[in-house]
Write a structure and sequence with these properties.
4-stranded mixed β-barrel, Carbamate kinase, alpha/beta, 8-stranded mixed β-sheet, 7 helices, globular, 16 strands
């Protein structure tokens, strides 16, 4: 059976059509949902007197911030999305990347604090859930592989989705955002290879969150994920929607 991994950014999660679209997709394939929720995390940080910080589109996470991230992402955001999916008829179940050792990561740059990179997924729990007909909804936190106590880490949702897609040998990985795809001068780029991504980054066209998605897409492509696309909710039902990330063309 086809396996599809969908990563939804916080803004994309607000689409009224999202629960029905995911439910319809899950009726045709095995689906795993990975969600973000950065805007809500930032809002809660400010309410608590903490100022959100980012480097290159990736969140800096202090020890205090990690408690907020876990509370918002694994708590309210995850459970709200699961509730909407259950109402739409999906057999949704919410889990954290920390559950069952699903996601592990390492701190590779102390400037980011409790943020994990080099994310690895153990697909055992997801395979069990999918085999039983569940639709897993995953919050992007991980266990620290370098911690004897298994301390938690915040991981970028795009990195989490990529690791899960790789571990499941997914047929498709979709990064669902609030834009039609990768844009240049307001126009969607239908297909993009690693060289094109490097060009967009060097010219400052791809930056912040979009650059993080493109970096994750290249990693997924190199690890053998069947297809990677970036775009709106239309990705779930329209195979032509969004920007498709393709391998580099080999020189002959």
């Amino acid at each position: 059976m086809t396996t599809r991994v969908f990563k939804f950014g916080g803004r994309a999660q607000g689409a009224a059509a999202l629960p029905a679209a995911i439910t319809a997709a899950a009726a045709q394939a095995q689906v795993v949902v990975v969600h973000g929720g950065g805007d809500e995390v930032s809002a809660m940080q400010r309410r608590l007197g903490l100022e959100p910080q980012f480097i290159g589109g990736r969140r800096v996470t202090s020890e205090a911030d990690l408690d907020v991230v876990r509370m918002l992402l694994s708590g309210s955001v995850n459970k709200r999305l699961v509730a909407h999916l259950l109402t739409a008829g999906a057999r949704a179940v919410g889990i954290s990347g920390e559950d069952g050792g699903l996601l592990t990561a390492r701190v590779t740059d102390s400037a980011f604090g409790r943020v994990g990179r080099d994310v690895i997924a153990d697909p055992a729990l997801l395979r069990d859930l999918l085999a039983a007909g569940w639709l897993p909804v995953v919050s992007p936190l991980a266990r620290d592989r370098d911690s004897a106590d298994g301390l938690g880490l915040n991981v970028n949702g795009d990195d989490a989705a990529t690791a899960i897609a790789v571990a499941l040998h997914a047929d498709e990985l979709c990064f669902v955002a609030d834009v039609d795809g990768v844009l240049e001068a307001g126009q969607r780029i239908p297909r993009l290879d690693p060289a094109g991504i490097h060009d967009l980054a060097s010219r400052g066209i791809a930056q912040g969150g979009m650059l993080a998605k493109l970096e994750a897409a290249v990693a997924a492509l190199e690890a053998g994920v069947g297809a990677i696309r970036i775009g709106t909710l239309d990705l779930l039902h329209d195979p032509q929607a969004g920007t498709t990330i393709v391998p580099a063309v080999s020189a002959t």
